Structure formats: C-alpha cells, structure tokens
Model the fold of this input.
Amino acid sequence: MTKEKKRNKQQNLVPTILAGCVGFMIICAWAFIPNPFRPPTIDFKLTENVDSENSDNTIYKEGITQQTIRLGSVLALEGQEEILGNRMKFGLKAAFNGQLVQGKKIELIFQNDYYEPLVARQKTQQLIQSGIFLMIGNVGTPTAKQTLPILEKNNVPAVGFFTGSELLRSQSELIINYRASYTQEIETVVEIALNAGVKPYEVCAYVQDDSYGISGLKAVRNALVKAEVEENILRPYDQVLEYKENRNKGNSLLSPIGFYPRNTPYVKAGYNSLKQWEKNTGINCRLVVTAGTYTNIARFINLAQEEGENWVISSLSFSHKEELKFELEEYGITEKVIITEVVPPLDSNLPIVQEAKSQLKSKFDHVSLEGYIVGKMTLKILRTIPGEINRKNFLKQVAMSKFDLGGIAIDFTQGRTQSSNLVLISVFTPQGFTNLKKNQLMALFQ
Done:
C-alpha cells in the first residue's frame, strides 16, 4: 500500500466512525419505538405536499428564481461508502460548472446521508422545503426506497440516480434513468456463465440485507427464469424473497443465498450460508452473484479464496471498479472476479468520455463519469425546453427527448424511463480489470 493510500485510509476512519455513530443512534431510537416497523420521529413535520417557497419569496416552490435553477442531491459524502457519493458529486459539478439555462445558473445543493435510509429521508424533506427543481444523482437503493415516495408526493423528478434497482424502473414520468438496470447487469453475467457450462443450480448469490440486495436477488431469479430453468431451482429464491417481504433479517432458510448487514464488514455468516447449502445439497456454487458495496464484497472474495473456494464471484457496477481493484490487490487476489459496468470504458474515444476526462482530471473514474453523463443529459433537456422552465414543461421535454450526447444515444421517447442499456463485463487479472473476451470464458469457470 502506498503512503498516500495509507494516509487516505486513515483519514477515512473518522467519517466512517462518525457514520457508524449516526447509524447506532438511529438503531437506538428505533429500539424504543413500540412498533418496530414505524419510522422514528425526525426533527420536523412530514407533510404530504411541501410548500418550499421561503419567507423572502426569492425561491419559488419549484426551486426556480430569477437567477438560478436549484437541483438537490442526497448521497453518501462521509462514511463507509463516501467514495461513491463524492465521485458522483464531482461528476455532477463538472457537468454543470459555469453553465447557464435561459440565463439562469445551475445551483447544486448536496446533502450527506451516510448511506443511511432514515437520514436520506430527513435530508430529502429538508431539500424539498428549501425549494428544489429536481433531485439528481442520489446514490443507493435503500436510500431511494425511503426518498422516492416523498419525491412522488411532492411532484419532484428523480433524475439519474446511482442505482439499477427495480424501484426506479416504474413507469412514473417522475423517474428518469440514465443507467442500465441491475437486472440487465445480472442477466448478462448469468448468461455468460451458462454459456460457459455452468448449470443453473450452480448459480448462488451473496447480497446486502436490504432493498439493494433484494433487488439483486430478484435480478438473479429473473435471469434464471429467462434461462427457462426448472421450477425446483427457483423455489429457494421464492422462499427467501417471501421471507424477506415479511421484513425478516438474516436467512434461516437453506438456500444458495448469503446475506450481510448493510454498512458492515461482516462476511462470515453469508459465506457460511453458502457452505451449508453446498454441504446439504451436494451442489457446488460455481458462480456467486453479489449485490453489495466494494468494501464488503472485497472481504467476502478474500474469505472465499482463503478457504480455497473455486467460485467465480461477480460484482455490480455499484461496487466501484477502481476501489474494488485496490482492495483486491491489497488482499493479493488476482483471479476469479468479474464486474459489470454501465458507462463506456474510460479509455474510450467517445467525445463525452474525453470531455469528462478533461474536466475531472484526477477525479475521473467510472462513477464520476456517470455523474458527468447524467449532468450533461439533464442540461441538454433543460436547454431544449421551448418556453418557461417548470416541472411540467421539463417532464414534457423529457418524454420527447432523443439526441446524441457526445457519442452516447439518449432516448426517452415512446414512454422510456431509461436511456441506456449498456452493460460491459471486465475480468480481474494480475494487471487489474480487463475487458472479458469470449476465449476467456471457459478458462474462467474451470
């Protein structure tokens, strides 16, 4: 580990501890509520429709002033997953920096949620009350699960969230996605595994124990359905999903699925679940599909390889390719790991990629590139609104938007709520992640 990396890791301990304290306080508050499924009381009144016009009348309820268009973003800027929130923030800021729409500046207001759902809920209410035009670039599925209903009630568009969850794949006109879905990412991985000779019953999963992990788990099931597997292969997934719908934590059922608690480094219980499945059924996992964060997934991969497992372990784009690479290298891992990505390669010659690279410089990576694309996409739509800028006209313009964004096709016509279906796969090697080639498939799953 370089001195700079060591120093950065040491510096990151403080916000991580702070995030843990916030989470602990939320848990404590939760424990004293008579009904454990009722959200804890927060420090301001929740309303059905928030009037965000402030006292001096300079901010209208849709976040528009004579000088500015105010955009909100709630994401992890401190804590265990701060790299994701900060990189998304960098990409958005670079995209909107110095840009005008009908003579108005774009004002970005970022709020830190530590990747904690209840904090995200509170910050969303605060932003709506202060007056924002739309919410952009929020990070995470469990946080989105809390914030999307609030945005819906207040008619606030949700644009370019950093999650591929099915929560954001509804037909609501308020939800505007850039990226491909987790289902598309996982279907791509399962398909290549099956083509390489992996049997459907040899596909297992290790996921975060919350709505993000459940999104991944449903995507694995969908991929198996698409492969037309037998009903008995789907049954354990159905049982676990039903178990989770009843808000149960952990997994007391025998299944090819392991769970870990969100925002924790704990991997042993999830690993043991998979080993118990192998022992009781005589089936060996060959592909383990994960839906988690890079810190935990890297620890899980390390444990599996230390125990001599021959599993190929896949990771979603949310895991952050660059940080996952660094963690794997620290553990001395060189093989049996693949990751999916939903943005063009960083060495692409596409104008949008080169532009982002020039603007972001040392902060250029897959997450900041996605933030930059989301920002430029939103800017283009805002600039093509023919009349007054308001949410109604913005949503109307989105529905007819079809344009080229520096080599990336953006198309929201015909009722689309997602503009990209791009999914790329990289495989980990001693030289880092490289594009997966067809001739590597058979060797990968040996």
Observations:
- The two ends are 31 Å apart (CA to CA).
- Residues 1-57 have pLDDT under 50 and may be disordered.
- The first strand starts at residue 68 and ends at 75.
